[in-house]
Amino acid sequence: MAMVGSEIERLIRQAFRMLMSSSSIWRAMGTIFAARIASEAFKGKSRIQQHQMVYSALQGQMGGALHALALETSVPK
């Protein structure tokens, strides 16, 4: 079964708890989503490491219930 944006956001917020200052998740098409996430947890991490952190938060849903996720990650200013 395909994931919905609210479930993706719940998993990400659960993983980053108080370290996340903002997030925006929207459906691009079908099971393809895009997300913009700002978190202090990303401080000192490469872009690849930041994206790996988000994929880990999705608890193995990538490639299954979630086909693709375009990510824009950043550290809050």
Task: Report what the structure shows.
There is one protein chain. The protein has 77 residues and is an alpha+beta fold. The chain has 2 helices and 3 strands, in the order αββαβ. It has helices spanning 5-16, 47-57, and strands at 20-29, 32-39, 68-74. β2 (32-39), α2 and β3 (68-74) form a beta-alpha-beta unit. The chain is globular.
List strands and helices in order, with pairings.
Blueprint: H1 5-16, E1 20-29, E2 32-39, H2 47-57, E3 68-74
Parallel strand pairs: 2-3
Antiparallel strand pairs: 1-2
In short:
This protein is α+β, with helices and mostly antiparallel strands. It is built from two helices and three strands, in the order H-E-E-H-E.
Strands of the biggest beta sheet: in what spatial order? 1-2-3
Uncertain segments: none
The percent range for helix content is 25-40%
**In percent, how much strand structure appears in the residues?**
25-35%
Mean pLDDT: 80
Radius of gyration: 12 Å
> In angstroms, what separates the terminal alpha carbons?
37 Å
> How many distinct beta strands?
3
Order of helices and strands: HEEHE
